[in-house]
Amino acid sequence: MEKLVSLCKRRGFVFQSSEIYGGLGSVWDYGPLGVELKRNVKDRWWRDMVTTRVDIEGLDAGILMHPDVWVASGHVEGFTDPLIECKNCHRRFRADFVEGDQCPSCGVKGEFTTPRMFNLMFKTFMGPVEDEAAQVYLRPETAQGIYVNFLNVLNSSRQKIPFGIAQIGKAFRNEITPGNFIFRTREFEQMEMQYFVKPGTDQEWFDYWRNERLEWVRSLGIRAEKLRLEQHTREELAHYAYDAYDIQYEFAFGWQEFEGIHNRTDYDLAAHQKRSGKKLEYFDQASNERYTPYIIETSGGVDRLMLVLLADAYREEEVEGETRVLLALQPQLAPVKAAIFPLVKKDGMPEVARKIHDDLRQRFHTFYDESGSIGRRYRRQDEAATPFCITIDGQTLEDDTVTVRDRDTLKQDRVATGKLGEYLADRLGG
Ligand code: ATP
After folding, report:
1. Do β-strands 338-342 and 388-392 pair in parallel, antiparallel, or remain unpaired?
2. d(CA 271, CA 277)
3. Residues 6 or more apart from 353 whose CB is under 8 A from it?
C-alpha cells in the first residue's frame, strides 16, 4: 500500500488534500492522471448502466436536501456507528473495528470508554441564521435523491416498471476511523442505481443485478481470484435491507467491500410516502393494480473502485536485472493512451514527434516527452499505466514508420505514421 500511495503521488494520481497546510484528515485530491482514470471509470459505468440500457434513466440530484428526507430515510435516527475512546491515548475508534479490549494505537488494555452512538452525517446551515431550523445535511448517500424523484422521473420519462434510475455524485460521511488511503474517506463519490420492481419479482431482480454487477466488475479486468461475493448475515443487514451482498476485493489489508447489492423492499418509498404525505405509488395498467414498488439497489464507491483497480494493476517485474514497476490497467481505463517520444533531441526527430503528438491528441489523450533517456521515459509511462509508447527514430525519417511499444508484453510493432490513429483505435477497442 505504501508503494502504491507513493506512486500515486509521484505520477499525479492522488494527492493529500491541503497538503501544504499539513493535510486534511481523510480527504484526497485527484491529480492529472487520477482525474482521467476517475472519468474513465464513471464513463464506463454510465455507458453500461444508462446509455446502453433502455430501462434505466439518469439523474443528478442536489447534495443538499430537505432535512425531512433524512428523518424519513432513518439516517437521523440510525445512521450511527459505535464510537469508543481510549482513556490512555485519547484516540477514537469504531467499536466494531476493534477486537478485544486492547487499544490498537497505544496498546494499553481495558481503557476503552463505553460505546457511544455517533451520527455520521455532516451538518451545515442554509441561509444566514445558524439555528436548528436552518440545519441541513450533506448527503451521506446519493440514493435518497433518487427516491424522492421517483415520480418525477417516472412521469417525465414514461418508463414502465421494471425500470431503474442511476446517479453518480458526491456523498459525505463523518467516519470515525477513515483510512487505508482512498478506501474510507469522509468525502467520496458514489455510483448508485435503484431498480424499481413489482413486489414478488424482487428476488428475481436481486439475483439478476448481483450477477450483472459482478460481471461488470470483472469486465474491468480485475483478477477473478481477488473478487468474491459475500452475503450479509442477519446481524449485518442495514435497517432498510431485506437481503444484501457485497462485492469484495482482497486488498493487502484483507477482503473488503467496494460495492453492495441490496433488496431494500418498499422501505424507502413507503417511508417517504408516510413522512411527506405524497403518494409514491405505481399504477400498473396491464394488471390494473396499484402498488408501492420494491427497490433493488446497486451501490458502489468510485474512489473505492479506483483503489481496487490501482491495487490490482500494481506490478513489480524483473526485466534485464532491473525492477520494473507498472500499472497494468486495462488500456480503455488508462489515463493516457499513448506517449510519444523522439529517440534523441536532434536530427529533426522532436519536430516529427510533436506533429504526430498534435495529430493524435485530437482523438486520444496522449503525452509528449523528450527528456531523459528512452529507458527512463518508458519507466515513467509504465508507472502511469500508459499502454502504448510511440518512438520516433532514425528509421522514421527514412520510411515514415515508428515503433509502438506495448506496456505489458514489451513487444514493439513498426507502424506507418499515417496509420497510428487506426492502430490505437483498434488496440483500444474502437
Ligand atoms: P462500510 O461498512 O465500509 O462503512 P457501508 O456498508 O456503509 O460501508 P454503503 O452504505 O453500502 O457502505 O455504501 C456503498 C458504497 O459506497 C460502498 O461499497 C463503498 O464503495 C462506498 N463508500 C461507503 N462509505 C465510503 C467511505 N467512507 N469512503 C469511500 N467510499 C465509501
Report:
1. parallel
2. 10
3. 340, 341, 342, 368, 370, 392
151, 170 Cβ separation under 8 angstroms: no
State pLDDT tens for residues 296-342: 999 999 999 999 999 999 999 998 888 999 999 999 999 999 999 99
DSSP line for 153-173: HHHHHT--SSEEEEEEEEEE-
Q: Ligand 1 centre and the CA of 190: distance in Å?
A: 9
CB atoms < 10 A from the CB of 78, how many? 12
Nearest to 404 by CA among 351, 355, 339: 339
Residue of the nearest CA to atom 10 in ligand 1? 141
pLDDT in tens, 375-421: 999 999 999 999 999 999 999 999 999 999 999 999 999 999 999 99
Testing ligand 1's pocket by substitution, the residue of 255, 257, 259, 302 carrying the most ligand atoms inside 8 A of its CB is: 257
Q: Which is nearest to 169 in space by CA: 194, 190, 144?
A: 190
N-term to C-term CA, the chain: 34
Per-residue model confidence as pLDDT tens digits over 225-274: 999 999 999 888 888 888 999 999 999 999 999 999 999 999 999 999 99
Ligand 1 proximity of 175 Cβ (cutoff 6 Å) = yes
Supply the residue whose CA is at minimum distance from atom 2 of ligand 1.
257
Query: Whole-model pTM?
Result: 0.94
